[in-house]
Amino acid sequence: MQGVGDVGGRPRKFHDEERLGDDVPETAHQISTDSWFQAGFVLTTGVNSVYVLGYSGTIMVPLGWIGGVVGLILATAISLYANTLVAKLHEFGGKRHIRYRDLAGYIYGKNAYRITWALQYVNLFMINIGYIILAGSALKAVYHLFRDDHVMKLPYFIAIAGVVCALFAIATPHLSALRIWLGFSTFLSLVYIIVACVLSAKNGIDSPPRDYSISGSTWSRIFTTIGAAANLVFAFNTGMLPEIQATVRKPAVKNMLKALYFQFTVGVLPMYAVTFIGYWAYGSSTSTYLLNSVKGPVWLKAFANISAFLQSVIALHIFASPTYEYLDTKFGITGSPFAIKNLSFRLAARGGYLAISTLVAALLPFLGDFESLTGALSTFPLTFILANHMYLVANKNKLTSLQKLWHWLNVCFFGLMSVAAAVSALRLIAVDSKTYSLFADL
């Protein structure tokens, strides 16, 4: 089957999955089983993951009050818009596209299918490594609350986090199986967000006036501002929206839009709260892991850090699920997910994937710079450039000249942002590589 559009007065052919050599929508995982509410919680889990504890330091400190507040609001609106574009294309051409690469391949062809696949999996791999580092950092923070020594170093805690993530991945066969875990994830997120907010607010009230100035030379501030802009869009975007939408019951587009509206209204409020309160309390000295800045009862800080660790395990599973789905489908893993054969396969495949991820996490615990580079090269293209251009191509006959111009402006603007963010990330890597060593105990 081929779809036909019109580009420049010529018929445009859309490419079906037979030409891509892929059996779509065949998958070893469940599709069309979840409510929009569950999908909304999956999206919200990503927004309020442990990464939120760093936004006061990585977004507000380099941007200040005006830049940070305006930037977060704009990033929210732009991200909602871009995600709705992708969601509306889910059933383009009269069929469901349950993977991002399927949609890109259908619209552009085999090469785009491969490139999108590569960009998406590199992006998700780096996000997962970040979760392992954050989980290890949370465990280390708990350790130092009770032990004032350096016997246990960060790489050891990262290894422990990797083992726990692997056990959870083996026991949880697919994304839809998270169900009750999403409830636990929401509870855990609220624990560390509320604790961070309450202790930060108390510290801020008891502290003298803070310094909110943006430090550094003009050139340094330009690069940090670009890096903070990359973090702004990273905060709201999964890079795997079609995979999440595949789990939603029909009508898939209508239900996914409900999930997105939930994510970008109720779902962003906790993230806003912890980001703004943390920056208000500590100003330009805010830590990139907020729980390291707060002062309060040891037991409460320990509870918050343990919650952060456990939530990282659940959130990682969401972002690793496209990789798991590919492996399970590729090797025909069907039947009971807890059959010995299937358990053994998940032990080998997912255990191996997470072993590699954990090794990289321990090797490069200052991975934030590399994640900024990955975001520049994959998050921007996947979330904004590709979303706008795919919508433009798919609906070219239905759009007015003004609408076409709007989408082209988005493509060009985010293309420039991608290049600028990549340059900024390369600069940070060059600077930090002189400071940190492999297997560093940060």
UniProtKB/TrEMBL annotation:
Primary location group: membrane
Residues covered by the Amino acid transporter transmembrane domain: 33-426
Keywords: Amino-acid transport, Membrane, Transmembrane, Transmembrane helix, Transport
GO aspect biological process, one term: amino acid transport
TM helices/strands, residue ranges: 63-86, 121-142, 154-173, 180-201, 221-239, 260-282, 302-327, 347-367, 373-393, 405-430
Localization (cell): Membrane
Example of a GO cellular component annotation carried by this entry: membrane
Domain of life: Eukaryota
Name the UniProt record assigns to this protein: Amino acid transporter transmembrane domain-containing protein
Taxonomic source organism: Rubroshorea leprosula
Phylogenetic placement of the source organism: Eukaryota, Viridiplantae, Streptophyta, Embryophyta, Tracheophyta
